[in-house]
Amino acid sequence: MDTINRGLSEPADDNVEAAAESRLLHVIGQTSRYIALLAAWVATSGSLYMSEALGWIPCLLCWYQRILMYPLALIAALGIVTNDRRMYRYVLVLAVPGMGMSLYHYLYQKSDFVRGLFPSSCVVGVPCSADYLNWFGGVVTIPFLALIAFTVIVLAAIASRLADDSEYAAEDAPAESNPQARVARMVIVLLIIAGVVGAFLLAAGANAQAQVAAARPATTPVSPIAVSPALLAKGKAVYESACVGCHGPAGEGVASIRPITESALLRSGTDEELIQLVRMGRRVNDPHNVSGLAMPAGGGQAGMADEDILAVIAYMRVLAQGRSD
């Protein structure tokens, strides 16, 4: 009798375990969609923060990555709200090429060999080999962050597809008709979007206040600093992190920005005048602005110290003499 009872209970236990595993996989699949949504909106909002709040002009390869990333923010949101089981297809079509583009851009920055393979792929406007962001000794740059975002989205899309069981993943199955579930998904999507966008808006506001504070008038004379190889090396590092995107690697300028060699203020202006210019930046409607492009205060780095500004001024004066060494 015990043998018979065990034989009758085993199929029931298997069914319970299979149902629990199915529910777990379904939860993983649904959660991965929200992870993709979060990554897409962080990348989208972050790129807009860099260009619109910090004044960092995107290069050509950056624009290609934006073209691939921005639609993902909308596709992921709509796919979750409508519970579209084909969402992973639409996501992978854009995210996989985005991974390749970000990886190529990162290697283009870090490898002379890659730049030599395609020397003319990014020579118009802001040079793609330069980067405003260089964290951890230059390991983390803007295309590196984009690569992480695209990779997270790709992995989340794959998990969304593989984690669903046959009942949920059948693409020909009828869509969910529960209006309460759709409203719940919509609320979660809106909360994620509002949280990400709100965080970057707060950061933009804080950056604007920091720029106003940094643009204080120079009330005391600046002590002359003896130009030395160490000072020029420091100035070159600051220039490459904050200035090269608009002024070019050798001060040749990009887009409509004139070469540094044509700057009378840089050649004959005082340190106080130049520090003030770097601190305040230059608006598009400034009568002295002939480029039509805004110069962000502090080169987009409002916390730049006077010592860093003096170092970069010394280096830029060297560039104004037609020297880049």
How much strand content do the residues show?
under 5%
**Shape label:** elongated
Q: For this entry, what is the oligomeric state of its chains?
A: single chain
Helical region count? Answer: 12
Structural features:
mainly alpha, Cytochrome Bc1 Complex, Chain D, domain 2, 2 domains, 12 helices
Please tell me about this protein's structure.
This protein has 325 residues and is an all-alpha fold. The protein has 2 domains: 213 residues, no CATH class; 92 residues, Cytochrome c-like domain (Cytochrome Bc1 Complex, Chain D, domain 2), CATH 1.10.760.10. 66% of the residues lie in helices and 0% in strands. The protein has 12 helices and no strands. Helix 1 packs antiparallel against helix 5 and helix 11 crosses helix 12. The protein is elongated. It starts with a helix and ends in a 5-residue tail after the last helix. About 3% of the residues have low confidence.
How is the secondary structure organized here?
Blueprint lengths: L1 H52 L6 H23 L4 H24 L1 H6 L24 H22 L2 H4 L9 H36 L14 H14 L1 H4 L16 H5 L2 H10 L25 H15 L5
Helix pairs in contact: 1-2, 1-5, 1-7, 2-3, 2-7, 3-5, 8-12, 11-12
